């Protein structure tokens, strides 16, 4: 974003493994919004999300040696780091404050977050959110962003445990249909 | 295995969204390795999920990048594993050389301290020896001074005695109750003179041997008080350095004549008459 040079993913990985700070700066400029978006959606707090984002990039910098391009794309690897870091923070916070259940139990979960954090791709998001019903949106967010187990989701949404996987599959299919139209 | 059925079972969706347990996820991953169709389906879903993520992308607050870059350097400095960077190596080297310098200077301090201690010890020993020998000479000085002092004391006592005696002598001479009897030489002892000084009241008697010859070593002069021809011993007296001073002799009750004879040392109960040197009649 705004950087004159562009790197291919393999160039970027090679630069990062060589401890090149220019490549790391480029990585941040290009991927920090997506990873910050994950952190924000998980912890739902800008300050905490900022701290989480720092942790994410430090983990990327330290762990780049372990990244294997044969096993997946760099972005997928970074997204997993971001999700795990943010969810870990959320769990330690929730554990401390007893926050998690009440927050997840509140009905206006996704729309609240939408109101607070305007997206880079706001229009696309509005479209997706409009076309997904609330239950579909919530089940994706609980699993993907909050790291909830099937049991937790069943409890929060007050549905039988056996139906969680089916509803998840339906929600994802609906999401992919919407994305195809975009 | 029916691949299409597996794909449409919903397990891939549950895997990508993180809903599966660890064991279930590992099964999916191994199936993906076995069946390219399963892997393709999972990858396609992954891409879609990442598109969904991108929809939520939000520009992070300014300053976070700078903070991360700062922590990056801090972490590198803290981590000794990251040895490619030159800065930690230099720091280590500096620390090492600094430590070495410190050790050397500490060693030198110890060496100097030890040398100083030895010098001080030697000095102390020398001073002790000197002091000890000095104390010996001081003791010698003290004893010689003590001797000197005691001799001076003795001299003083002697002088005091002499003074007292002179006073007495003077008193005797001044006192009008004393009777002076001059005793000239008898017979062949011409030119020989002695004087007796007698107080009839106090019975005190003194003799002054003005001109008596020195007696032989084994002999002494003896004074006699003669009353009605009968001599009474009045004691022996010295000559020598006391020859010219008044010497106290035995008290005399009564006397008509005084006489001095040469007797054996210590005196005789009765006078040896042929050895009478001087004699004099007491004035009435």
Short description:
The complex is a heterodimer of chains A (182) and B (284). Chain A has 10 helices and no strands.
Structure description:
The complex is a heterodimer of chains A (182) and B (284). Chain A is mostly helical and 182 residues long. In chain A, 76% of the residues lie in helices and 0% in strands. Chain A contains 10 helices and no strands. In chain A, helix 1 crosses helix 2, helix 3 crosses helix 4 (74-97) and helix 9 crosses helix 10 (161-181). The radius of gyration of chain A is 18 Å and the shape is globular. Chain B has 284 residues and is of the alpha+beta class. Chain B contains 6 helices and 8 strands; from the N terminus they run ααααααββββββββ. Chain B has helices at residues 3-8, 11-16, 22-34, 36-55, 64-78, 86-174, and strands at 179-184, 193-198, 205-211, 219-227, 230-237, 246-249, 257-264, 276-281. In chain B, a hairpin with a 6-residue loop joins strand 2 and strand 3. In chain B, helix 3 packs across helix 4 (36-55). Classes of the chains: A mainly alpha (182), B alpha+beta (284). Chains A and B meet through helix 2, helix 3, helix 4, helix 7 and helix 8 of A and helix 2, helix 4 and helix 5 of B.
Keywords:
heterodimer; A: 182 residues; mainly alpha; B: 284 residues; alpha+beta; four-stranded antiparallel beta sheet
In terms of topology, how is this protein built?
The complex is a heterodimer of chains A (182) and B (284).
Chain A: H1 9-17, H2 21-43, H3 46-63, H4 74-97, H5 100-105, H6 109-116, H7 122-131, H8 134-145, H9 150-157, H10 161-181
Helix pairs in contact in A: 1-2, 2-3, 2-4, 3-4, 8-10, 9-10
Chain B: H1 3-8, H2 11-16, H3 22-34, H4 36-55, H5 64-78, H6 86-174, E1 179-184, E2 193-198, E3 205-211, E4 219-227, E5 230-237, E6 246-249, E7 257-264, E8 276-281
Antiparallel strand pairs in B: 1-2, 2-3, 3-6, 4-5, 4-7, 7-8
């Amino acid at each position: 974003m705004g950087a004159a040079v562009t790197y291919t993913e393999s160039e970027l990985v090679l630069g990062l493994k060589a401890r090149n700070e220019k490549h790391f700066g480029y990585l941040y400029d290009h991927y920090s919004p997506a990873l910050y978006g994950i952190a924000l959606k998980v912890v739902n707090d800008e300050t905490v999300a900022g701290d989480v984002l720092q942790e994410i990039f430090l983990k990327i910098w330290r762990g780049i040696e372990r990244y294997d391009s044969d096993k997946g794309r760099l972005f997928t690897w970074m997204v997993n780091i971001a999700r795990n870091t943010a969810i870990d923070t959320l769990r330690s916070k929730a554990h401390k404050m007893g926050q998690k259940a009440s927050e997840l139990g509140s009905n206006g979960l996704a729309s609240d977050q939408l109101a607070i954090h305007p997206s880079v791709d706001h229009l696309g998001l509005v479209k997706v959110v409009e076309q997904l019903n609330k239950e579909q949106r919530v089940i994706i967010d609980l699993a993907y962003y909050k790291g909830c187990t099937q049991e937790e989701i069943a409890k929060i949404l007050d549905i039988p445990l056996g139906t969680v996987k089916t509803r998840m599959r339906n929600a994802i299919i609906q999401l992919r249909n919407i994305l195809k139209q975009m | 295995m029916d691949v299409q059925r597996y794909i449409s079972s919903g397990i891939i969706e549950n895997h990508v969204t993180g809903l599966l347990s660890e064991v279930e996820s590992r099964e999916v991953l191994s199936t993906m390795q076995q069946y390219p169709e399963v892997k393709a389906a999972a990858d396609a879903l992954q891409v879609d999920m990442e598109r969904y993520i991108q929809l939520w992308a939000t520009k992070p607050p300014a300053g976070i990048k700078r903070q991360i870059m700062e922590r990056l350097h801090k972490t590198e400095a803290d981590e000794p594993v990251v040895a490619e960077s030159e800065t930690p190596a230099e720091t280590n080297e500096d620390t090492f050389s600094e430590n070495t310098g410190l050790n050397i200077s500490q060693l030198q301090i110890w060496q100097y301290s030890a040398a100083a201690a030895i010098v001080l010890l030697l000095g102390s020993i020398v001073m002790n020896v000197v002091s000890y020998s000095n104390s010996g000479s001081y003791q010698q000085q003290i004893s010689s001074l003590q001797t000197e002092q005691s001799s001076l004391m003795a001299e003083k006592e002697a002088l005091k005695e002499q003074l007292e005696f002179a006073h007495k002598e003077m008193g005797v001479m001044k006192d009008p109750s004393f009777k002076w009897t001059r005793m000239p030489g008898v017979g062949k002892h011409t030119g020989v003179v002695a004087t007796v000084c007698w107080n009839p009241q106090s019975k005190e008697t003194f003799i002054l041997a003005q001109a008596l010859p020195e007696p032989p070593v084994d002999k002494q002069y003896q004074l006699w008080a003669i009353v009605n021809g009968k001599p009474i011993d009045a004691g022996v007296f010295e000559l020598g350095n006391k020859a010219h001073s008044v010497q106290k002799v035995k008290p005399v009750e009564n006397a008509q004549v005084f006489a001095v004879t040469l007797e054996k040392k210590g005196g005789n109960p009765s006078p040896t008459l042929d050895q009478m040197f001087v004699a004099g009649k007491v004035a009435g």
